[in-house]
């Protein structure tokens, strides 16, 4: 993993107030993963723009936390302190907020990472995604991305046809995004477990990367995911830092079938070694154990079709037998916020942490050997697209604040306060912005956070203030509220302008299985009943570009993709891997022993 180019901004005003600090990790390489099969991106919900929405939410959270921190400091000043010049100071501060080079943060450590992991040369990646017959899946993944240009030029799919076409896509920059995401999550692990003198002490981290990972199993890409970011980070923490027990809390709308499958395999192997060591006396003290707890909608992907193996896996509750520690809780509808907070949250959803407590209390576990991860999806948010969940299995935005706050309290007792939250799903801009804002406030640990900060009125103000203007920049006009000006200034300092990408328009975009199927028959003349993130009355046939636009050739597409490479070097592994086929993905290789192994449902059709 390369970390030499990592840029850290530690701009703390009062280290004593928030120490160790909360940090956010950003990775520009994650913008390179783009859909390029067609000109029509309207149904592509896992898109680079998701990171922009998350950054807006993070900027708003930082602005509000600064305001809260300043208010606390003012209460501590002596009565009768001379306020001469206060008005002038406020005016100068207001002017500074509107400058393009405004500081990125004062209460949260912002780390702009350039870390990257070579898929074929990393122990943690091989531990999770390696194969007994060699790096078959990893080599195939690299070759799929490497050949994507040629495939699209021919009008073919760059993804093998036995994989879900609507949920998975690749382009030449996808490898940089995938390896950059892994590198950034592992960098966060290193910083949390081994404090850096340049970054200061960090105990809580939010890692904003894509593509997500919790649907990807050992060798089964699925649901927008090609590698499992959180389990690779767990393996890295075990191999490099000796962490033995991992608590993974998954709050995405969808069951993390890939993470559960990998956790099951890890626990099964540790359990087998433990049984064998009872007679041989072998040391198993460094073997890792994983608790996986998930809150999800059992009616949504990957369980939407009601396939028994997937529904059963997403409903498992087992704690101890066969060395397994799994808890699955199904989201339920609620009638009001009062109903949610008085009934559902305390009686059902906090069970995720109760079972985690039982897990870490088994044996004589030292808190220094425990690390907590949150697989943080925002797609259960009340502001998510209706097409993601039409069953009322949602949570209020404040859930992301309170769950983070409760997880931090859990970690302070059982894991030395160390929590790493990693972005998973969340697709509408408002769901991502509001969820990220609330979640970072919860991770920060500051008291007296006002949950009205992310109400609809304030979200509308944030969206208006950060709306793209001509030339791609946000408006820097002064706002009525200082926190809103500060939000714009912080966001402007961390935003990465994203240029539009033209695409080959031969193939219509396939429907994503992550979106719910239309249960009723499609209207006469309709090509599909699949709901979309936009107006459902829109015709799905939009692959053709508007007549007013000049026609684009495939070479134009490829030239633009190369121009938008953001200056990243091509991974060495791309040129080093010999050409391979996806034949080994069809089931002719030997698989490791696994119980309740989750497979891609598309492979069974």
Automatic annotation (TrEMBL):
It holds the Pfam family Hist_deacetyl. Residues 527-540 have a biased composition (Polar residues). GO terms for molecular function: histone deacetylase activity. Residues 136-441 form the Histone deacetylase domain. One of its GO terms (cellular component) is nucleus. GO terms for biological process: regulation of gene expression. This is Arginase/deacetylase. The lineage of its organism: Eukaryota, Fungi, Dikarya, Basidiomycota, Agaricomycotina.
């Amino acid at each position: 993993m390369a970390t030499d180019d990592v840029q850290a901004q530690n701009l703390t005003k009062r280290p004593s107030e928030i120490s160790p600090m909360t940090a956010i990790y950003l990775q520009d390489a994650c913008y390179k993963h783009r859909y390029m099969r067609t000109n029509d991106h309207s149904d592509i919900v896992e898109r680079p723009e998701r990171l922009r929405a998350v950054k807006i939410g993070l900027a708003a959270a930082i602005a509000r936390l600064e305001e809260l921190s300043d208010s606390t400091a003012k209460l501590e000043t002596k009565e009768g302190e001379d306020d001469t010049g206060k008005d002038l100071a406020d005016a100068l501060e207001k002017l500074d907020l509107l400058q393009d080079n405004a500081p990125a943060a004062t209460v949260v450590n912002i780390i702009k990472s350039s870390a990257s992991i070579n898929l074929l040369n990393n122990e943690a990646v091989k531990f999770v995604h390696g194969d007994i017959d060699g790096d078959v899946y990893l080599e195939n993944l690299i070759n799929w991305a490497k050949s994507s240009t040629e495939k699209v030029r021919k009008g073919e799919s760059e993804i093998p046809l036995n994989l879900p076409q609507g949920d998975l896509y690749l382009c030449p920059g996808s490898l940089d995004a995938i390896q950059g995401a892994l590198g950034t999550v592992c960098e966060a692990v290193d910083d949390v477990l081994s404090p850096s003198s340049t970054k200061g002490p960090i105990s809580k981290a939010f890692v904003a990367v894509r593509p997500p990972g919790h649907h990807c199993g050992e060798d089964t890409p699925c649901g927008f995911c090609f590698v499992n970011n959180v389990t690779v980070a767990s393996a890295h923490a075990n191999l490099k830092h000796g962490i033995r027990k991992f608590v993974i809390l998954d709050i995405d709308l969808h069951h993390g079938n890939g993470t559960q499958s990998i956790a099951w395999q890890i626990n099964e192997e540790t359990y087998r070694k433990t049984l064998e060591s009872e007679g041989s006396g072998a040391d198993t003290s460094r073997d890792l154990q994983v608790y996986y707890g998930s809150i999800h909608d059992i009616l949504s992907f990957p369980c939407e079709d009601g396939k028994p193996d997937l529904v059963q896996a997403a409903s498992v509750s087992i704690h101890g037998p066969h060395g397994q520690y799994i808890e699955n809780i199904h989201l339920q509808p609620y009638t009001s916020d009062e109903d949610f907070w008085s009934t559902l949250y305390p009686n059902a959803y906090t069970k995720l942490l109760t079972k985690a407590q039982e897990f870490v209390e088994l044996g004589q576990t030292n808190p220094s050997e425990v690390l907590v991860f949150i697989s943080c999806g925002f797609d259960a948010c009340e502001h998510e697209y209706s097409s993601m969940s039409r069953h009322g299995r949602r949570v209020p935005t404040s859930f992301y604040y309170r769950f983070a706050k409760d997880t931090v309290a859990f970690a302070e007792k059982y894991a030395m306060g160390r929590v790493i939250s990693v972005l998973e799903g969340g697709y509408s801009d408002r769901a991502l912005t509001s969820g990220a804002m609330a979640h970072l406030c919860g991770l920060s640990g500051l008291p007296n956070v006002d949950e009205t900060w992310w109400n609809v009125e304030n979200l509308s103000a944030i969206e208006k203030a950060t709306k793209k203007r001509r030339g791609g920049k946000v408006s820097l006009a002064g706002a009525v509220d200082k926190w809103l000006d500060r939000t714009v200034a912080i966001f402007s300092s961390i935003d990465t302008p994203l240029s539009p990408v033209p695409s080959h328009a031969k193939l219509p975009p396939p429907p994503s299985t992550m979106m719910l199927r239309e249960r009723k028959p499609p209207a006469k003349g309709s090509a599909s009943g699949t709901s979309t993130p936009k107006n459902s009355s829109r015709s799905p046939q939009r692959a053709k570009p508007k007549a007013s636009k000049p026609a684009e050739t495939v070479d134009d597409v490829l030239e633009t993709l190369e121009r938008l490479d953001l200056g990243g070097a091509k991974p060495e592994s791309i040129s080093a891997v010999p050409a391979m086929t996806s034949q080994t993905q069809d089931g002719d290789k030997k698989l490791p022993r696994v119980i309740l192994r989750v497979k891609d449902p598309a492979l069974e059709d």
